[in-house]
């Protein structure tokens, strides 16, 4: 992880904007001193445009905005988004202290370069492990859904043709091969046709 993007939001209050800008500049300086290439963005739109070259994003924003910003950034590129915890960002976040909040990681100005490195390293590992877990979960849910359609089709074929479920499965398999379709597509067609014909 070499390239980081520091992002800060613009708030309605000008003094808060000045403080966030100052904090973002401090974050950029510390990250550059720690050996990272740093790009800055002052809005979500700008960040989404520049995110292509970043390995992670550092959000210098009130914690109450973190989840929404992270979601928007993930829609552009799948990289960890770490929250920059400082006196300023935590003061702006006091009201959100009790909210259900999960960050990909947290950095602060009191960290040494080695601590920043390891925080980024472990945040990235955890982030990508979570992304892999979500992908595997989606694949598993998809397979379960496919299995449901196949089982329903086997049941329909067993009842209507008076055959065993293993014979029904073999029938589905042969039909899929003959039609050059996936087994689940043939099963879905059978179930939907059956439901249409037996609609009350």
UniProtKB/TrEMBL annotation:
GO molecular function per UniProt: kinase activity; RNA binding
Keyword terms, alphabetized: Kinase, Transferase
Report the transmembrane regions from the record: none
In the UniProt record, does the keyword Kinase occur? yes
Annotated signal sequence is none
Q: Which residues form the ANTAR domain?
A: 130-191
Q: Which PROSITE patterns match?
A: ANTAR
Q: Which InterPro entries match?
A: ANTAR, CheY-like_superfamily, WH-like_DNA-bd_sf
Which Pfam families does this entry report, sorted A to Z? ANTAR (PF03861)
Protein name as it appears in the record: Histidine kinase
Source organism:
Paenibacillus yonginensis
